[in-house]
Amino acid sequence: MKIYGFGNADVHNQDAIVLNLPNRDEKVEEYKRHLRALGQAGIPYTTYAHMANGIWSTAPEPTRGEAPARAFDQAKAETGHWRSRSYHVPLTHGREYGEAEVWDNFTRFIKEVVPVAEEAGVLIGIHPDDPPLSPLGGVARIFSTFEGYQRALAIADSPNVGVCLCVGCWLEGGDLMGKSAVEAIHAFGAQRKLFKVHFRNVDHPLPHFVETFIDDGYMDMYQIMKALREVDFRGVMIPDHIPRMANDHRVGTAYTIGYMKALLKRANDEA
User: Fold this and answer.
1) For residues 178 and 181, what is the distance between their CA atoms, to the nearest angstrom?
2) CA distance 56 to 93
3) Residues 6+ apart with CB under 8 A from 78
4) Which residues on neighbouring strands pair with residue 69, listed in sequence order?
5) Which helix (H) or strand (E) holds 80?
6) pLDDT tens-digit readout, 122-158
7) How far is residue 3 from each of residues 21, 36, 42, 203, measured CA to CA in Å?
């Protein structure tokens, strides 16, 4: 078994880093230790998300077969969650944080960690905002558009900083992303910045979506697989946020992986 990557929830989606809170420097040093540990273990990849107030959802809703699934309805959204923390409207951190401030904090962070990532030989894939909607709880989100990614990659200016393309998040954003998921794959693939893919589908784009099985959303996921084959994607692709099937999470995982393998075989055979 070869390990491609490990995340670390203690240094991922950290408001201290995103908002420059008092424990910011401590968290950045912890992130650097994470990168060095990966390098020492020969693990080449980690995912990073730059969200200050977590992943936002509303009450679960049924998808195909009445399977319970994560949902987001912008008209009802009040709370973001990350691990054991909750963040509530109207202002999750006591005041508004605009785009300029969040961009400044990202720039400072990425400039500090890039030399460590390069020395350790570790790739950092930046995950899209979930949902890709800005602001939420008074805090701007900067990874909610293709343009935002291009700006961040230019700031990082490193072969070790690229994209963890969550197809589900990209589909959540729909036209708001500035490019379709297929167009984004071609663009990031041409730049050799596509490091990891989260393979999932949703029923509709914002303002209201429900996650569903990969063959049951508004996207033809074969088009995603075909695009990955066309750009010669060499990273890792995983199932993600699978609705519960047969009251056992393993059933949905097995179903999803089997479907992905079939799509991959078709794309390879056609190529």
Assistant:
1) 10
2) 15
3) 88, 89
4) 61
5) strand 79-82
6) 999 999 999 999 999 999 999 999 999 999 999 999 9
7) 33, 16, 9, 32
For residues 230 and 247, give the distance between their C-alpha atoms in angstroms, rounded to a whole number.
37
- Of 82, 91, 94, whose CA–CA distance to 129 is shortest? 82
Contact 203, 63 (CB under 8 A): yes
Q: Map residue 228 onto helix, strand or coil.
A: helix
Quote the tokens at residue 269: 């055979």
Q: Output Rg (C-alpha) for the chain, integer angstroms.
A: 18
- Judge if pTM exceeds 0.90: yes
Alpha carbon distance 257, 240 (integer Å): 10
CA dist 202 and 169 (Å) reads: 9
In the structure encoding, which two tokens stand for residue 67, read together? 């399977």
- β-strand 194-199 against 161-166: which pairing, if any? parallel
CA distance 57 to 50: 17
Q: How far apart are CA 145 and CA 207, in angstroms?
A: 15
Residues 6+ apart with CB under 8 A from 152: 106, 110, 126, 142, 143, 161
**Pairing status of strand 55-56 against strand 79-82:** antiparallel
H-assigned helices in the chain = 15-19, 24-41, 99-120, 146-156, 167-173, 181-190, 221-230, 249-270
CB 127 within 8 A of CB 47: yes
pLDDT in tens, 160-200: 999 999 999 999 999 999 999 999 999 999 999 999 999 99
The helix (H) or strand (E) run that includes residue 25 is helix 24-41
